[in-house]
Amino acid sequence: MEFIKVILKRGKEQSLLRFHPWVFSGAIQSVSGDIEEGDVVEILDSNNNFLAMGYSQIGSIAVRIFSFERVIPDEKFWIGKIEKALAVREKAGLLNNPETNAYRLIYAEGDGMPGVIVDMYNQTAVMQIHTVGMYIIKDTLCNALQEVMGSNLKAIYNKSEGTIPFKANLNPENGFLFGKTDDKTALENGLRFNVDYEKGQKTGFFVDQRENRALLEKYSNNKKVLNLFCYTGGFSFYAMRGGASLVHSVDSSERAIELTNQNVELNFPGDDRHQAFAEDAFKFLSHPKEDYDVIILDPPAFAKHLKVVPNALQGYRKLNARAIEKIKPGGIIFTFSCSQVISKDAFRKAVFSAAAKSGRNVRILHQMEQPADHPVNIYHPESEYLKGLVLFVE
C-alpha cells in the first residue's frame, strides 16, 4: 500500500530518532503528492530513509505519529494498540476492581493513539477524538474496542462534536456508536457519582484526580473544607467520607452545582454538612463564608497555548495568594494546574510567589501528578499535564 511521503529538512529528523511523536510544519521540506487533513503519511529524512508513520493535520503540528515502523493501520493494528493500553491498566489494578470501575483506557500519545481519549465508566466507553485522522476511522476504533473489551463493554459514546477542528467539515455529532445505556452511575474508590457525558465537560468526569481525591480524604476529618471550581463535586464527597465537619462546593456553573448536589446525595443522602454555591471562585474567596481548614483549588486550564502562559501564571499567583491569605493557621491547601503548557517548575514558582506575597510560612507536604491510567510517554513530555501541591500554611 502506497502512502503520501513527507520529507523532512536536513537535520530535522533528530526528534523522531528520539521517538517524539510530533512533526512540526517548519521541519518539512516537501510532500510527495496532494495531501489532505487526516491522510496517512510516511515520514522520511532528507536522504529518503523511513522514520515513522502518522496522520497529517493543519497547524504547527503537521503530523501526529502512531508508529515508528512501517505498518498497515487497519483494525488489527488498532486492536494491538488497545490491548497494550488495557494491559497497562491491568498492571495499575484498575481492571475487575470492585471499588473502582471508572478509569482512562486510552490516553492519546501516552498510549500511541494521538488525539484519542477513551474513559471507561462502568461498562460504557466515552470516546473523545481531537484529530481528523483518528475521527475518520472512528468506526474502526469502535470495532477494535469491542473486540478487545468483549463482554466488559456495553456501549460506546462519541463525545467529539466540540473537539474536532471545525474547518475539517466533518460535521461530527455526539451520540452512541455502539449499544446504548441509561445508566450513568460509576464507582471510584467505593464512592458513586453520576457521569454527564452528554452535556458535561470533557468525558463527563475528571478521572485523573482519583488518587489526589483519596489523599484529600485523609486530611478532612473534623475539618471545614472549601472546594473551589468543584465541577461535579469529586473532592467534596471524598472530604465528607473523610469526616469533614462542613463542606462548601463552589462553581460558576449552575449545571455543575446541580451535578455536585446529585453526587453528594448519591453518597450521603440528607447530609446537611454540604452546601453548594453557584458563584465565581475568586469572588467567593474574597469574602469566604467560613474560616476554612482545607481549601481545594482545581481550576480549569488557565492556558491552552504558549502565548497566554504569562497571563495564566498571573492567574495562578492571584488565586493561590488569595487562598493562602484566607485559610486558617495550620490549614491545608490542595492546589492544581491542568494546563499542559505550564511546567511543574513554572507552577511551583507561581505558588512560591503567592506564598511570599502573603508573608506566611508555607511548606509543601505532597507533590501530586496524574495517575497511571494517564501514562506519560517518556519521549513526549507534553503528555504530562497535571501537577499539584499540598501546602501546609502556618
Name a few traits of the molecule.
10 helices; Archaeosine Trna-guanine Transglycosylase, Chain: A, domain 4; globular; Rossmann fold; alpha/beta; 6-stranded mixed sheet; Transcription Regulator spoIIAA; 394 residues
- CATH-derived topology of the largest domain: Rossmann fold
Look at the structure and give the CATH class of the largest domain.
Alpha Beta
Please work out how many helical segments DSSP would assign: 10
Beta-strand fraction estimate: 25-35%
The strand count comes to 20
- Based on CA atoms alone, the radius of gyration comes out at 22 Å
Mean pLDDT: 94
Alpha-carbon distance between the two ends: 66 Å
Which helices and strands, and how do they pair?
Blueprint: E1 4-8, H1 14-17, E2 22-24, E3 28-31, E4 40-44, E5 50-56, E6 61-67, H2 75-91, E7 102-107, E8 116-121, E9 124-129, H3 132-136, H4 138-149, E10 155-158, E11 175-178, E12 185-188, E13 191-194, H5 210-218, E14 224-228, H6 234-241, E15 246-251, H7 254-267, E16 274-278, H8 281-286, E17 294-297, H9 309-326, E18 331-337, H10 344-358, E19 362-369, E20 387-393
Parallel strand pairs: 1-4, 9-10, 14-15, 14-17, 15-16, 17-18
Antiparallel strand pairs: 1-3, 2-6, 4-5, 5-6, 7-8, 8-9, 10-11, 12-13, 18-20, 19-20
Helix pairs in contact: 2-4, 5-6, 9-10
